Amino acid sequence: MSDVDEQPRTLLVTLTGKDRPGVTSAMFATLSAAGVEVLDIEQIVLRRRLVLGVLITAPRDWKRLRDAIEETAASLGMQVDVDRGVGDNRVRGSGRSHVTVLGAPLKASAMAAIAGRIADCGANIDRIERMARYPVTAIDLAISGVEPEVLRPLLATEAATQGIDIAVQPADLLRRSMRLIVMDVDSTLIQGEVIEMIAAHAGCEAEVAAVTEQAMRGEMDFEESLRARVALLKDVPATALDEVYESIALAPGARTMVRVLRRLGYRFAIVSGGFTHITARLAEDLGIHYSRANELEIVDGRLTGRVVGDVVDRAGKATALREFAADIGVPVDATIAIGDGANDLDMLNAAGLGIAYNAKPVVRDAADASVNVPYLDTILYLLGISREEIEAADMADGIVTPAPPV
Distance from first CA to last CA of the chain, Å, rounded? Predict the structure, then answer.
């Protein structure tokens, strides 16, 4: 370092090396002896390698402090840089976002492409934090300098090219507040479509599946498609509904997501174009606060092929979201909707954060965020909750999770 006599206003101390207890305290003991003020700190540990950055005010005899810092680093067996500044820490730009990147795997080329798009629009990456390393790699980037509405479409396009998932959210207090999560059921909370499972008992599974696919792609009005499919179920024994429920498989990570967010005071709702006989039991089993679905007419122990009351369709799902939010007393901006089909679009658009989960292309294109890995608990990473925090909370409750791969 040059010994030019110009008095700096700040010093940036960057310490790197093998982490062990006492490193940070030793460095701050050296800084405290000089009576400096701390303006900013960043510290990370990556594979037992520590990087500590401290921005401090520069004392009059800053060279003596520099020498003391270097002696402390040497005694710790670490490397240090002391850079002189001429001002306080740069204020982070307006237009702040959290960008969550999900990959399985997450390749360096994908991160390079994402970082390039961020730079192209004049934004800056202020901080990077790993949220999970298995079963997917999840990375959270704090971005400043561009509005989320500008950043989102740029990164969505790049994510599709790279085969990864990206969510862009405003960096505001809503991300830390109690929220309402409203989920679709079929092919979202659970694997598969309930109506097709019931149809298997009637021997018309293929016909029902074909109509379901048309509706999910948005090629047929949902209510029309539902009534047509339910009509095919005429004379199926009502006991088939119990058999279907017992055969249902939840989406991987569904219980984890609900369990973790309930600990934090979140509220949950399921809104389905399916049937109350199934959704009511799911809600009770998982501890979900609200549910709304269609009711099958049953006479003399058999399905009549008709639906009782109004159909919960695309518009009905959005209406349910607003009503549940009002009942809880949270603004619609504090809601999260998760769905996969065209009949979820109004609900996704109404929510503060709409997430397309393993969704059809028309839904992915319209949603705020898209998750295309088969783990529903990856939603937790979008909310700033790390895998380590999840496992620590589970362990405290006596819940043991499988060990991660080495």
Answer: 41
Q: Do 342 and 216 touch, CB atoms closer than 8 A?
A: yes
Q: Is the same domain home to 190 and 327?
A: yes
Q: Are residues 199 and 218 in the same domain?
A: yes
Whether 186 sits among the annotated catalytic residues: the reply is yes
Q: Is there a single domain that holds both residue 261 and residue 126? A: no
Residue 1: pLDDT band (50, 70, 90) is very low
Could you tell me if residue 127 is inside a domain?
yes
In this prediction, residue 158 has a pLDDT band, given cuts at 50, 70 and 90, of very high
pLDDT of residue 89: 52
Active site (annotated) includes residue 285: no
Q: Which of 186, 344, 346, 377 is catalytic?
A: 186
CA–CA gap between residue 131 and residue 48 (Å, rounded): 17
Q: Does 360 share its domain with 333?
A: yes
* Residues facing residue 356 across a β-bridge: 339, 370
Among residues 140, 184, 344, 368, the one annotated as catalytic is: 184
Count the domains in the chain. Answer: 3
C-alpha 40, offset from chain centre:
28
Q: Could you tell me if 189 and 54 lie in one domain?
A: no
187 and 41 within one domain: no
| Cα distance between residue 130 and residue 100, in whole Å | 10
**Is 91 among the domain residues?**
no
Residue 206's Cβ-count burial label (10 Å; 0-12, 13-18, 19+) is exposed
Spell out a b/e string for 365-380, using b for 16 or more CB atoms within 10 Å of the CB, else e.
Answer: ebbbbbbbbebbbbbb
Q: Are residues 137 and 65 in the same domain?
A: no
pLDDT of 50 higher than 70 = yes
64, part of any domain: yes
Q: Is residue 4 part of a domain?
A: no
Q: What is the pTM of this model?
A: 0.83
pLDDT above 70: percentage of residues in the chain = 95
Q: How far is CA 106 from CA 41, 48, 112, 369, in A?
A: 28, 21, 11, 17
- 331 and 274 together in one domain: yes
Q: If you average pLDDT over every residue of the chain, what do you get?
A: 90
Q: What is the pLDDT of residue 312?
A: 94
Q: For residue 313, give both structure tokens.
A: 């369709």
